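Sorry to interrupt, but I need a hand with the structure work. Please put the record directly below this note.
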Amino acid sequence: MQKQKGFSFLELIVIVAVIGLLVTTALISLGNARIKAQDAKRFADLRSIEKAVQSYFNDHNHTYPASESSWVDFMDQLALSLNNKVLRDPVNNVSSHYTYCWNAGGSKYFISANFEQPLISGFVSGAISFDTTGGGCIASDDLPATASGVCGPTRLCLGFPFN
């Protein structure tokens, strides 16, 4: 009897199943890496904005920036500190964007962003209600912005009066 060359049908099914498992594992890992990278960018962007706002405060008679018109105008006010970059959330949709709010007189502000994974502890947490009477709020790419919400594991809030 002559031996057949090649793989049997069962062996091919097993090989395809193993390759499928490897591809699935790789895709899941890449998805988690993408989420972590987006959250890392959000964190770095918020810290950069916070530093730029503090620099603006020091250079402009101890008032925080107020930009009634748009996120781009707000970024223009911080252009020197941000090397002329316009920072936006990597996803940038209604549930995922940066928010900047200020009060009347420019003595207080906060910036916030929603994260896809819980943050490490040590940041502001709890409900916030920021009085923007005479002030305002803007969001990246002029999406809806609000001065209230909950800061916590998946929403980072920075600024004065928080730090």
User: Anything to note?
Assistant: The chain has a mean pLDDT of 81.
